Amino acid sequence: MAHSKSLDRKLGLMGLAATGICSMLGASINVVPFMIHRSVPEIGPFVVPAFVFALLPALLAAFAYSSLASAMPRAGGSYIYASRGLHPYLGFIASFSQWFGLSIVIGVIAYIIVPFLRDVFAALGYEALAGALEIGWLRVLLALSMIWGFVYVNFRGASFYERTVIPLMFFMFGMGLVVIVAGFWFNQEEFMAAKEIEKSVVEYDTFFTWKSFFSAAAVLFSSFIGFDAIAQAGGEAASPARNLPKAILLAIGIVGGYYFLFTMAVYHAVPWQYVLQEALTQDISAPGLFNALLPPWMMVLILTGAAVALMNDLPAMLLSVSRLVFAWANDGIFPKTIAQIHDHYHTPHRALVLSGLLASVGVLGSHFAGDFFLGIDIMVISMMVNFLLMCFTLLFIHKTNPSLKNQLTILKSPLLRRWIGGLGVIVLAVFLLAHTYKDITSNVSFWYFHSTYIYLIVIGIASIYYITQTNRMQKKGIDLAKHFADLPDQ
Fold this sequence. Notes:
Strand content: under 5%
Shape: globular
């Protein structure tokens, strides 16, 4: 088979924005704002304020990404930005932890989708089929099937990918609107009456603490990280210098507003005390909380919408992580053969397969660990480090790579870059410390259920690999300083 030497720049503004939106919505809105009570039980009634606060570091990181994307529109955005604008080692470490964290979470999300499908069949009256989806091996098999189905969607190329994610995105918003309207239509008294709950059951209160607030905000921050998928698709963006920054800011703006409305609506109708009780004993979701308020046909709609929202995460996130692998291979850090592009579909098919395999490990990990928050915690710490390095890159690119600094079309003002980058470093460092402290001090049965330790092991492996590969490159006569100063051809 002959191979093309470049990716196709066919993703327009809508396709890029849909990539970011679909990466952010899904588990982030239907599960995390309610299961947060299991991870941080002390957050009590302060979930919505913590959600809003979690948007701050995401906005700062989004501005950093938008600025860097305007100068370096290449596949594997975060790797390219940090390796060219900060240091090659930091670029690889940031993106490797991102690839590892996101790939694992792809598996986590695929595993979570199955209970949503179970609830759809139960609402339709297919109890036997719903019961079958409780079988462990069948749940794993379905999750793996979804991952590899969306690997195929990505394999078919940018146009096929757009035709898949854009309609699913609009369907997801439409079904989510049902939850928003229902949430503001009903009140908590009606919910308790429908569930036959005594008022005394939900009358206990909680005290605000900054520790629990920052811990919850650090986890909820994970809901906003999907916009970086837009940057990873930089090698396939049409008019990239214009469309990449627009798509990043458009995606985080739309999703931020949607998150606020959706979460407010659910907690308007359902007492947080009830959500806490349920989260501590079982996996819950936004649609599941409404089953006593809505007629069966409407429950089928919102459960289907939630399942589609979760599925939407998969193709966009697979695109993101596979382009990181492609960028490493294209730079010579991974074997060059992984950077091969399919002659007909113009996609990095081998990078897609490698990312699909790691996502499959995430499915198995979720099944045997029994708690999907481990995968989410690994992703959170990985992405916080990644975003922190993007803000550092924005701060220092004028020193490390002046020629690329001159190509920035967003945040051209040095003073504005210093403010955005500096504030981003401070806020993200605080979030990272809060999350790390929560993880290390948590009471778990085995050490490997601490995401911080898993992350450090991954970073250690990545560091050894990076040193080995760059030493080989130097022995071949490659000038690493020049090699990592220029943008790669894609």
